[in-house]
Amino acid sequence: MLAHAIFFYIFSLIAIISAIMVTVSKNTVHSVFFLILDFISISCLFIMIGAEFLGMIMLIIYVGAVAVLFLFVVMMLNVAQQKNQWFSAKENSKHIPVGLIISTIIFFELIIVIGGWKYKPDLVSSMSLNIDNNISNTHAIGYVLYTDYIHIFQLSGMILLVAMVGAIVLTFRQRSGVKRQSYFSQISRERSDGVELIDIPSNQGVKSDD
Amino acid sequence: MDYLSIIFSETYKILFLLVPVLVSVAMVVWLDRRIWAFVQKRQGPNVVGPFGLLQSLADALKYMFKEVIIPSSSNKIIFILAPIVTMTLALISWAVIPFSETQVLADINVGILYLFAVSSLGVYGIIMGGWASNSKYPFLGAIRSAAQMVSYEVSIGVIIINVLLCVGSLNLNDIVMAQTNLWFIIPLFPMFVIFFISALAETNRPPFDLPEAEAELVAGYQTEYSGMMYAMFWLGEYANILLMCAMGSILFLGGWLSPIEIYPFTLIPGAIWLILKILFLFILFALVKATVPRYRYDQLMRLGWKIFLPLALTWVVLTSSYLFYFNLLPTN
To answer: Which residue among B108, B120, B131 places its CB closest to the CB of A60?
Structure first.
């Protein structure tokens, strides 16, 4: 148990410190790297409590896909300059009150959730789920997701689909004057379409590019 | 005292796995260059040692004694971290590869998810290297490879779902044991082809080596690297290629199972069969590198998103309806 405790404290320390560094560090790209470190240590914590499926899914989705896109955007947009502006300029700091309001709301929500966990344990306990201890937790998640919570599961899938379609519709625009390549017509080109043999009369030449 | 003995025995096991992997990476680089040369009617590296077998060793020595240059305007910590990340990620995934029913370092429940997660982290080494170099060619290479690896991971994930539908477990040994009667390459042959091509793109191999297209981007994300740091990128890349081959042979070619379960074949240990299968896939990789011209970037993206992803998704529907209709769904 000692080793278990040591590793738990190492991972949670890394998680907390890197979460602080995400907000503190000046360079935005460093912030994203700290965010990735945070995700990784949290997935290690998941694995330590025996939720290996959640830990791996956390790695695949958050670290392998979402954070890559974050990094992509942050690198391309040069957000670092803007961030410095926000914090240095006095008249431009309209976002700070908004940020404060949002963080206060999140803080109170967390208090309510943790308070509920502490004082009304039967409200949020998973005892009603009837989990068989002999099966691996991947199977257990599957049994719960596809039986009791199938409607919520499908609904969240639909929400993601709608969000995806919405993103595509928002960014899709028809531009005129863009040459598009049709792969089918490129592949189906024959020699006779592109090559023409011309008998050139001597001392006269031929006009080819018309 | 108990902890110490555990640590020693585990370190011994890890070394026993990693040293052969690193040596075989060096050998495989030689094999790759030899095959490439033979296809083009050249000799390839044949001077150092018998048949040039020690060429990779000589190269490694050369890299070790070269100066490591860190560009003055680079982001030094991330610049140094990038090859370390690539190398570490390429090596830690070997922990779950089963060489026989018992010879596996970590027989975890979610082995295939672990492999997939680690291979999806591989993109960070490249992005970090490209960004920290603070130079335009590495940056362009890094952006290309990030987009490319993320795109092809999606289709690899869907292909893995196909195999998992037939197995009913995420454990790599269970996946191998499920192929005792029939290797998955036979019922899932189109998925094997897509997996092979996606693996080429995932490891930035030709014809999908756009991140380091030397005609356009010098050497892509590796442009600013030199000496041992460059060698680490290079080792990590080849270790990743071997890993992809191992993944392909576990998912489709029956892992450590022998092709026919009759007397002379069953004498050969499973590890040998797995190594032979990995080598077979690697030789295919090398032949593709030698024969196919490089893709254009938009063609690459189109292939990943518009052809492979719909095909693999359709095949998921097909596989699951077939299994459901004939009541073959695994129930464990």
So the answer is: B120
Looking at per-residue pLDDT, the higher value among B293 and A92 belongs to B293
* For chain B, domain boundaries: 67-325
Q: Is there a contact between A52 and B108 if contact means CB atoms under 8 Å apart?
A: yes
Shortest distance between the Cα of B208 and any Cα of chain A, in A, equals 18
- In this structure, chain A runs to a length of 210
> Are A33 and B78 within 8 A, CB to CB?
yes
Mean pLDDT of B226-240: 87
Query: Per-residue pLDDT for B76 more than 90?
Result: no
Total tally of structural domains belonging to chain A = 3
Record: contact B120-A64, CB cut-off 8 A: yes
Domain that residue A150 falls in: 128-168
Candidates B246, B237, B185, B218; CA nearest to B32 is: B237
pLDDT of residue A129: 62
Task: Give the 3-state secondary structure of chain A.
Answer: CHHHHHHHHHHHHHHHHHHHHHHHCCCHHHHHHHHHHHHHHHHHHHHHCCCHHHHHHHHHHHHHHHHHHHHHHHHHHCHHHHHHHHHHCCCCCCHHHHHHHHHHHHHHHHHHHHHHHHHCHHHHCCHHHCCCCCCCHHHHHHHHHHHCCHHHHHHHHHHHHHHHHHHHHHHCCCCCCCCCCCHHHHHCCCHHHHCCCCCCCCCCCCCCCC
* One domain for residues A71 and A102: no
In B, minimum Cα distance to A34 occurs at: B78
Closest CB from A3, A64, A137 relative to B121: A64
Mutate to test the interface with B, among A7, A34, A48, A56 (most CBs of B within 10 A): A56
Q: If pLDDT is split at 50, 70 and 90, which confidence band does A71 have?
A: confident
Q: Residue B219: pLDDT above 80?
A: no
Residues A3 and A63 in one domain: yes
Residue pair B304/B144 in contact (Cβ under 8 Å)? The answer is no
Q: Taking CA atoms, what residue in A is nearest to B112?
A: A56
Among the partner-chain residues A29, A53, A68, the one whose CB lies closest to the CB of B110 is A53
Together in a domain, A80 and A5: yes
Domain stop point among A26, A56, A84: A84
Residues B109, A59: C-beta atoms closer than 8 Å: no
Cross-chain Cβ contact B143/A72 below 8 Å: yes
- C-alpha–C-alpha distance, residues B214 and B287, integer Å: 20
